[in-house]
Amino acid sequence: MTENRGEALRARLAALRVVPVIRTPSADLAIRACEWLLDAGMQALELTFTTPDADRVIQTFARTAPDALIGAGTVRTPEQAKAAIDAGAAFLVSPGAAPGVGEAAALAGVPYLPGAATPSEVEARWAAGAAVVKIFPARECGGPGFLKAIRSVYPEIPLMPTGGVSPDTAKAYLDAGALCLGMGGELVPVDALKANDPGPVREAAARALAAVHG
Fold first, then answer.
1. Cβ atoms of 22 and 29 closer than 8 Å
2. Active-site amino acid positions
3. Which residues have C-beta within 8 Å of that of residue 163, sequence separation ≥ 6?
4. How far apart are the first and last CA of the chain?
5. Domain for residue 210, yes or no?
6. Domain of residue 90, residue span
7. For residue 81, what is the domain's CATH number?
8. Is residue 161 part of a domain?
9. Whole-model pTM above 0.90?
10. Contacts of residue 16, Cβ cutoff 8 Å, sequence gap at least 6
11. By C-alpha distance, which of 41, 40, 76, 38 is closest to 57?
């Protein structure tokens, strides 16, 4: 069951190519970001658990945007994993290998995307059953060059670079072999959300979509 869902998730992520990572100081700002991103054509959202009431936001969009791929990010405890799964998250993402989260995801049949920053970590995450391995923080790890090197020795492992990925660097990461990209602050500027100005978010979303699908 979990492996079938993992295969389906990989196929969906490969088609979408961009996963906006929403990290905001309030749930209301997260909801605003999700609405603007969906309106701009994004079809995947990752709500991080550093956002207050992230599970409530996940539940909101799992219900109101059933055709979108709604996941949970920065999941670091089994309790957060359960809250995300109960809210309807289609996948769970962690910055590293969070104790107990992979087990909770596997028990529920939900794909897990743990983070890695070295070749040994990438290999270990995949061996432990990751659906996709998140390279984090991608820019600080070495950017597209690092990703290309990892892909050269682990061609079978699907990778999602996240952290410092922008519309300007998106194509370079995909050319280096990324399955898909996680984009956070470069795509969802909190200042624009606070100012209730959708312009910068929509512009960044348009640039990102053009970069990965153009």
1. no
2. 46, 134
3. 135, 136, 137, 138, 139, 140, 141, 182, 184
4. 34
5. no
6. 2-205
7. 3.20.20.70
8. yes
9. yes
10. 43, 44, 69, 180
11. 38
